[in-house]
Amino acid sequence: MLTQTELIKLKKGELINHFLLLKRCEIKLTKSNNQYLYLELADKTTALSANIWENFSKLFSELKTGDIVKVTGSVDEYQGVGQIKIMSIKTADSNDDIVPSDFLARSKRNVEEMKNELKNRIQKIRNPNLFLLMDQFFNENNILKFSDAPAGKYWHHSYLSGLLEHSLELIRICDLMCDIHPEINRDLVICGALMHDYGKTEELKFDSSFEYTTRGKLLGHIVIAAILINEGCKKIPNFPDDLRDCLLHIILSHQGKLEFASPVVPKTLEAITLYQADELSAKVNAYKSALNEVKDKGKWTKFLPLASTDLFNHGIPQEG
Known about the structure:
This protein is an alpha+beta fold. It folds into two domains: 94 residues, CATH 2.40.50.140; 185 residues, Hypothetical protein af1432 (Orthogonal Bundle), CATH 1.10.3210. Helix content is 40%, strand content 17%. The strands form two sheets. It has a five-stranded antiparallel β-sheet with strand order 3-2-1-4-5. It has a two-stranded antiparallel sheet with strand order 6-7. Strand 1 and strand 2 form a beta hairpin. Helix 5 runs antiparallel to helix 6, helix 5 crosses helix 10 and helix 6 packs across helix 9. The model has no long low-confidence stretch (mean pLDDT 91).
């Protein structure tokens, strides 16, 4: 059992004597065109960067992404962002009795409760063709991997069981929108919520770190999900073509814009509902994660490129 102070709790100047997960290891160039080694080191709570400015060639050849390393040094800052000032770093060995899962963040929700919530919601699908289709993808064998997977590598729900948590959030949002707007086909949009990121179970590997698979890099999770759905529909006799195409459209358009890698833009009520629900779930989660890294109340986060802004932690307490 790994016992060490969480990175997120350490302040500038405090010492580090930690086992950490190496998330990135690459050679970069300074503005004056000099090489340096850039590292990203993490535990379950956060990741901090570290730079090694000289004599790093041997180290670079020995380290690889996903390694567990033993690091000594201290917490430093650059332009208000935490960094690690490294004194020594080496790859952990088997005698250290450390496993990669010690360093992978997990959903704070109970996984078994989320799995039961998912199964119970699937049982409420009334359309027989859609129910049979979902039963294929969420049988006992498939649901194990789906329940472990992260929803992303960096931006949102980027922790074990994040995909399950994110999908359940979408289902709740879509159910609410169907209550408000009964014109939305509830079964169709709920199946879209269940399947929109299903391809991430093949796009990402998440055993020792979160990395893209070869299939994920070549196809992407949207195309992977569309292929799986199309194959699944073929296994159900007389599955309606229009129902298949409308479900595929939700998956293919769920990132909303062509420049965001959606092959098409949303063109049905269900597709626009799913896209906006996905945006809401993803951004609230990503913003929460960024704000959680602000150690002092009433402070700003660092600039977030994916949000195109920094965020303010107002620190106003909940009433009651």
